[in-house]
């Protein structure tokens, strides 16, 4: 109700402004007429008009303060609400949606930034201006018809010319000639990529190349500038010709009416000024049409995003309080939504017992990381089932499922906040003692304590203030603090040097005890102690067993991999 009352108050204030603007034009016409009368009449009428203008000044002062205060409150509330809803809608979508080229991070961030601001501009500002102009038009027509309907009818007949001239003038001042938003967005995407990957750009001395790519994207709007200016200027000239022609016609007809005694000079001047001022209000209203249309498209885009139903439902299903950790993948067929023509799995089966550890190895593209994604339900299989403790994960509430799963990735993702807050992402209600204990299990407490600010140290964007091994141990601590029944390690040590790998591996060995663990690895030396090793090739398990049993199979895939790594031939692994 409060929001509705503020909107109503604001619109009434707008209508008050448009009424005063109409009366102003009428007062101006009355002042001009009064100067052609006797001096006493001129003085008397002038005093009335001055008093009226002073009173109007006070009223408009108060109205504009209230109006802009309401505008600020309504606009900021709308922007905040829309941005929050858009961001919530973005995060609600399944991972496959983010794989689409139209939903890359730079485009989504641009939509988050610009769509809300554009909606504020259109809904709050433009629609109110339109209402104000429409109110001014209605008031002016009523006054003009009361004064003299004949001159009003003729001026209305010339309105298409008057309005056309004023409209093109306004559009010309706005830079009319086409919407280049998409072209500039592509250029912005190029700039964002260059800045976000500045280390790579600097390492390869590619600054000029990136600038060249950015300049190339800007050539499209640049090339169209000459053509747009030529066309706009041509039509602007025509519109001005029509505008002054309509003025001439109105003046000529006014003289005819005065000559025939059908109207007085006073009535003609008042009607003419009121309607000419109104013509600019009509033109101003019409110039808002492209903005209103753009606003409608933006609103449709925003609501399309908000109303989209995710293909991986997250708020429905059974809550699970405890998990033993039995993982089963039965008869799964899977294709990535962004690459539906590529079959990753067909009739794929896998089972990991509770508390057991399994390593997935194989060549790139064999489906190792896909298994991790399916267990986390980043994607749903086309056919088949993924079961946790015998329950299809599609029947479990997503947050309840993921609460019992810890993930450590090859490239740990840290947020630009403190180490403490990054670890706390794993469990919001964790205590400080929980954070410290998780850090100790991850072999991270010693290096964190040695930092000048300890756990309050800010890690920088994507954790750039920490080394690779330090980032990985913070990520492990973040996974540990959840106390997950299932631990997923996606090449958690492949990007580390030998010393960092040794420290991180020792931390992982502690964490894996008593938990169901699925390890994806390229470095086979890190998986010798797991219970079961599964060798994947072409989306199928071609070998399975412990390290010792697989090594006994001379000529087997696993045996060959070990030999290749021992010979330091890593061409495919």
From TrEMBL:
Topology in the lipid bilayer: Multi-pass membrane protein
Subcellular location: Membrane
Start and end residues of each ABC transmembrane type-1 domain: 16-294
Main location: membrane
Alphabetical list of InterPro entries matching this protein: AAA+_ATPase, ABC1_TM_dom, ABC1_TM_sf, ABC_transporter-like_ATP-bd, ABC_transporter-like_CS, P-loop_NTPase, Type_1_exporter
Keywords: ATP-binding, Membrane, Nucleotide-binding, Repeat, Transmembrane, Transmembrane helix, Transport
GO terms of biological process kind: oligopeptide export from mitochondrion
Domain ABC transporter residue range list: 327-563
GO molecular function, one term: ATP hydrolysis activity
GO annotation, cellular component aspect: mitochondrial inner membrane
CDD domains for this protein: ABC_6TM_Pgp_ABCB1_D2_like, ABC_MTABC3_MDL1_MDL2
Record-annotated membrane-spanning stretches: 12-37, 49-74
Entries under Gene3D superfamilies matching the protein: ABC transporter type 1, transmembrane domain, P-loop containing nucleotide triphosphate hydrolases
Family under the similarity heading: Belongs to the ABC transporter superfamily. ABCB family. Multidrug resistance exporter (TC 3.A.1.201) subfamily.
Protein name: ABC transporter B family member 2-like isoform X1
Organism: Iris pallida
Lineage: Eukaryota, Viridiplantae, Streptophyta, Embryophyta, Tracheophyta
